[in-house]
Fold each of these.
Amino acid sequence: MKLFRKIIILLVLAAIGFGGYWAYINLYKPNTNLEGKNFKYVYIPSDADFETLLNELYSEGVIDNHKSFEWMAKRMDLDKNVHPGKYRINTGMNNRQIILMLKNNKQESVKLTFNSQIRTKEEFIEYLDDKLELSFDELDEYLSDDVVLEKEYGLDPDNVMTLILPNAFEVSWVIKKEELFAQIKNYFNSVWTRDRRDKCKKMGYTVVEATTLAAIVQGESAIQTEQQKIAGVYINRLKKNMAMQADPTLKFANRNFDVQRVTNADKQIDSPYNTYKYKGLPPGPICLVNMQSLDAVLNYTRHNFYYFCAKPSLNGYSDFSASYEQHLKYADAYQKALDAKGIKR
């Protein structure tokens, strides 16, 4: 009888031990294989089912023991709770931690940073395509749709970049385009306050026109007081129906964004952004416009200058003139300064 009792006790202890080992293997033992990395990101697409989720995890090589993970995932109902998104798998995570993270939709947000280095619609789309699940083609189609752009934003494919202002957003990797642009539009509206819109209206400009001018001014100088004076020059020229002759627009038209010196050959391009060839403002902004540049235009300096040229010291400031003759003297000094520094382009 005593022997039988001992056997029962040993069997119970063995069962407990086995159960503990089973729990350790399936729940608490680390089950990641990140090849020496501290973490890896896994991306679960919008149309993913349980099999797709497993394929994504396995293709990234983050799960060490597939069998124990799948067994535990089904018992924790992960197969019924698949949420698309971007997830961070840390080294040393166990099945339970990974499953709860996925099941409870504890995804990582994606930070989008829009700045003035984004100049074209294509660059903007490429940036989003690289950061989000949204495809280049889907975004390109959306931002080329005249009907949608007019209805939602009062814009068109040529000036839609007016909507995009420098800012940072944290969004889901699987955000829908409509949701993304709703956030972008909300920020746009917060920037374009009644005060700014009133100033724009008093100038006789639309929001698109003011933004387009601000982008050109921003391309000329980063100094606010200079921006205000430069804006005054361009406004004076526009009022006189003079060609703007803005070098930043030539850089945009030729896609030569890094050149320091514009040549006569650059001026030959047949583009609506060639403000040497065509009078008036170009169709839309040539970069994303920051608040300083926007406010510089809305609070431009009123003067009688029609020309400006960078100082030969190349310190970010310009020489302004009311006559073309004086401008030519300033321009000659500037060109000689570039020559002396060996700046050809």
Amino acid sequence: MSLRPIMLTRPPVEIMINEGFWDELIEAGFRDVCVSWMTFLNEVEGGEPLPSHEEARPRVLSFFDNKCGTYEYIPVISPDNELYDGLNLLPPHRSNEYDSLFKDLYSAFEQAKSKGMNLYLFDDKSYFEEVGYPANEDGSRGFRCWNDPEVADYLISRTRDYSNQLPMFSGIVLDGPDYKWEIAPGERDDLFAEQCDCRHCVNAAHEMGLDLLEMIGALDSFKLELQQLDDERVEGFLLTTRGFLGAVDWWLSHPDLLNLLRFKYSTIEDHLERVYEGIKKYLPEYQVMASSRTPSYISLTGHALPRRVGYTDFQLPKLYLWAGNQPGFRYTVKNYVDTISAWNPNLSKKNVVALTERILGIEFPEDYPVERFNDPAPSSFYKEIAGDEMKKMIHLVKDPDKLIPFIALEHFGGPQIEPREVRDLLTSLEESGISRYIFFHYGVITDPVWDVLTEFTE
């Protein structure tokens, strides 16, 4: 086997102070680690309940003494305030009582580097309120639109701060941002309920000669179209959108939707390019990696893999393939089928499935129809659908060595893909010619999954 994985970790970072953590990874063939949520844990009343229900790794559970508590997150570094001069976004601070723990963690990272480990940061997103994320000048926290140029400037300063204080790290994974892609009402990623209309978004649209509110209105009208389908209309759409030029008439009749895609592409690109160039200005040797969604619906999220080659060193599309919970691929696809069916109860099941396949550019295996997507997936799913997603990635990026897809068992405590499915996924990955992946995340791995992962390491 010849895959080279990056292991992504989450708190407790304290487990890394134990030399056995690095030895465990090295013995299993892991030589690359991305540290997500660079925070210590402090047990307090009213904090977040931990360990989360998804934790399974014995080393993580032993930190919590196999019982649940509530914890607050303490930033690992105390910021160099000069790096943030002129910014309204303020970095989180660490109290002096954690100085000795930071020294221990610093030594652990040095030890990992001496053992041949490559270490990467995971970005503190400056556009959401979350652990390690910044505050405004008045101390408030919350969503900050990535179309605000200061969001990128903060991330650049934050990366420099980490690099100065943790010089053994050699790169950073940028996680998003993404526009939404789901259509099921009430979903976290519902694209019909996502649009930010802050002044930064309005200005960004204006600079492109576009009207943001008109584009949002067009999105509402499109949702109404999807709620008023019949078999004749769908069959006509399927018939006339075949071939390279088949969809031109449809897009020309929906110019504001096309403009909305242009707006998404442009604003995501502006943000990531600003971050990439800012980091490279100060840290030219730093590897900058950027995540995205899988190719079947990446366009809805504002990312274009071929265009991103100019402002990322490595691309990390998310091959999140589980069912039963967001943001899994099977979950999203099934939501499309179920939502279109619910909106149009008289539409035939055949046309619902065909329309979903046309929208997302996929084909369901005959032995695994969408109504079975909550069941464990057969090998054909990973060979055909997942395999096609990998082929799309390679075609769009051109260089498989620049691809490091994310894979995961689940998110937010949903049903996990089985160890056999992990083997099928890694087999398809290896056969595709992609040699690297990033696994989200260490704490969730059971022994049977660990055994499968180690089978495929170099």
